[in-house]
Amino acid sequence: MDAPDDSTDVTVDSDAPGTASTHETGTGRVTIRTTHPGGNGRVLEVAGDVIRLEPEIRDSTRRWFYWNVDVESDVSQVLEVRFPTDEVVGPRGPAVRTGVPCGSPTADGAWSEWRWLGADRRLDANAFRYAFDAGERAQLSLSFPYQRADFDAFALEFASDPRVSVETLTTTHGGREVPVVRLGTESGTELDGSAGDIVLAARHHACESIGSYVLEGTLRELLEGETGPALLERYRVYVYPFVDLDGVERGDPGKHRAPHDHNRDYVDSNAIAHLSPIYPTTAAIAGDLESLENLVVALDLHSPYKWGGDVNDRPFFVTDPDDPGDPLRTLASALESATTRRASDGPTLSFDAAPGTGLASFDGQSGLLHTFTRYCWLEGATLSSALEIPYVGTEDDPVTPSSARRLGRDLAVALLEWVDSGN
Description:
Layout: E1 20-24, E2 29-33, E3 42-47, E4 50-54, E5 68-73, E6 77-82, E7 95-98, E8 115-116, E9 122-124, E10 127-132, E11 137-141, H1 148-157, E12 164-171, E13 177-183, E14 185-187, E15 190-192, E16 196-202, H2 210-224, H3 229-232, E17 235-240, H4 245-250, H5 280-291, E18 295-302, E19 316-318, H6 326-341, E20 359-360, H7 372-378, E21 383-388, H8 401-421
Parallel strand pairs: 4-6, 16-17, 16-18, 18-21, 19-20
Antiparallel strand pairs: 1-2, 2-5, 3-4, 5-11, 6-10, 7-8, 7-11, 9-10, 12-13, 13-17, 14-15, 19-21
Helix pairs in contact: 2-8, 6-8
């Protein structure tokens, strides 16, 4: 999310992420972990059948809402999970997946698909109930996580595709190798992109995981869809799937980091000061962008505030408060058309291109912030915008992994229509 917000300022939390603790309940015992990729949550108390938690802020300077815990029960019992001071349980309850007995430890990846627990298990915005079977292990989260392992599983499907190259862009402060994906029709040793370059990015803010599902859907459509591959015949596509990879894997919120987060790190020098990025990944992306010969489109995938309000429950492009510009209006119309036309093909998130709905700006929004989209605009992109995808969605239009991937496929179709339209 690139928006200002009304969250409360807090002291920076420097506690190291990843804990595991076992507690007595009124019926048996429960083990609560945040040692898994993406784990986040501090145990305040376990008393009787009530677990009290709070989201960990880590190095963010404002209170945020992301949480993701792994809970294992030794007996059949119904437990209440409560966040005493944080409204972080959405209208459909938490996202959940459970360990699947298949002869290998759940820690090695034997899990069910993510789903919403359900509104009937939600007590209020602070709490929910979960009925554990004996020996059951469940991961519960604000919304649907997407980790490096999920991306690696996707990339493995296309490992032999000559149009796909997955390389290491750089190494993070935490020692993790950051992937960059380059797509296009090969011509000799170079990607043939005579019409120009398209750039896609996600996870500038680590907890905004729904964009990763959308991004995967976009790549799938480009590689295996009916119309998407035509785009790769004329354009090179560069993809940065995890800008804040350390934060994604540690389970950091990643928003409002001190001294600034990844999407405020595309700094440049001027006559007054010489500024440099503080994160290796943003520095490497900036260098990559400078090497492109003809940057045409840059899209950055985000999620807005948790839910509610005027814009937080529907997808929208972030626009200039005064005028979104004809290129973005054309892409928004193409995306509306694609989601409407292809709705019968499977669950998708609808998109309404109307101003204030699918084209919206934030209060206090500034074009002077050192964001990825501003940097791409300075590098000459015809169209450079953030696409915000909700964490939860509406009652009639819920976010799920499937619907988010489908929106990504529709986005690829819309991009092809946009370039064919002449913008």
